Amino acid sequence: MTDNFAPTNHLVRPMLTDLYQITMAYAYWKNKRQEEEGTFDLHFRKNPFGGEYTIFAGLEECMRLLSNFKFTQNDVNYLKTLMPYADDSFFEYLMHLDCSEVRVFAIKEGTIVFPHVTLMRVEGPLIVCQLLETTLLNLVNYASLIATNAARCRVAAESGGRKATLLEFGLRRAQGPDGAISASHYSYMGGFDGTSNVLAGKIFDIAVRGTHAHSFVVAFKGMHDLDSTLLLNKITGEEMDFLETVMKYKNLLASAEITHEGELAAFIAYALAFPAGFLALVDTYNTLNSGVPNFLITALALIEFGYEPIGIRLDSGDLAYLSIKSREQFEQAAEQFCVPEIAEYNIVASNDIEEKTLNSLNQQGHSIDVYGIGTNLVTCKGCPALGCVFKLVQIGDEPCLKLSSNVVKVSIPGKKDIYRLYIGDQGHPILDIMVTEGSQEPKIGEQIYCRHPLIETKRVMVKPTNVVKLNELVWDGKLVYDLPTLDEIRARVKEQIETLRPDHKRSLFPTPYKVSVSGELYELFHKLWLKESPIDVLK
To answer: N or C: which end of the chain has fewer CB within 10 A?
Structure first.
């Protein structure tokens, strides 16, 4: 950990919290419970996007928060205006708070996780842990949601054995600057290959990609808008008239007879600026009758000058149909001019793409190589919130729980360890099991009794072929965990997705993944539930 191990966003600090965290802290302090130890579980209750898995993300930013958790004098002065009735000594107490007595056990960032499983277990002084709640939830909720959305897009894009490049294009539609930066960060973690967001590329060392907009094409009306048309010919080493070569191919390519002159001028201008990275947006006027032919004649000229064009982008219309017809034009040009690589040029598709679109395109058949996905990715339109919660599960040595008339909201008490059990030789996990902390670790080859946390009749015996402990100590008054790089977490997401059974990953009616508790934890849970639940008296 370096000295500048600060949150990526300077707004992430103790004051980024709900008022009731401060008021509860004061009430604890007034009752002299500030040194009492509490244990909190951070978990969620339902997978997003109608699916059966979630990617855990945001852990590093949580560690950055803990490392810099400190109220300033300015913070305290403001809090005094909100709580004029509070004792001055309480605010003095706040000034000295930090996370030096806090311990955090967490699942590795980038791991596939499931409802009710503890993602982070936070232990320490009751007041400090309580003050961490809102900020930790804020850092985990959106991060995990975006990473999951990205991972699901990756699964959809590559269904049926296809390969695809995914680019995040959501900066302009994201919920403010922080939403945009976080979306770029966690979509890359979830499996995307790059972003259009220049600042995110700088901060996180993510590949930055982009072409040009329709406005660039519309800005050119004809060849008179071009300044100089000279371009270095890499083969001869001399500057030559690029426009002359383009017009030669315009006369040779039959489909280029009636193309839009302004569009062609724009493509020439862009090719002159980026001869080694020419990728054109072809749907400004007419994709198949103008855009694609204009791209091809410009690309052929670049090839003659020793450059390698990249391809085209489609941003409207029937993407499946247009991609196939564009590919046919590529193949015809490749055959006509004996340049086989033209047939393999990239076709990039954008325009309100989401997971459902990707599945539909694959069902229809298409010739798309790269997807630019923006609005539906960064806003998580299909599920705008994950719904992580932060619940007190133990005070001192006494497990506790929250009750609810909605049983899925009843918290599982006590400190827990989490294990992932595998069976068979294909490497697929079969279930996750939570056990009371310090219990005997499940062993490979031994029968393990696994119970549904809520339904008494649901229980199974499992003889695992592999056992992986999921939670580990990451913070013990300081960071005690070697944080992986973003690329290492991204690789972990990919590996985790590959290990999950196909029926858990499918977009339509996926099989629920089993989350269980040990027999011992089940008995503790239900005994405490009965104890804390009052008996109704019917009248």
So the answer is: C
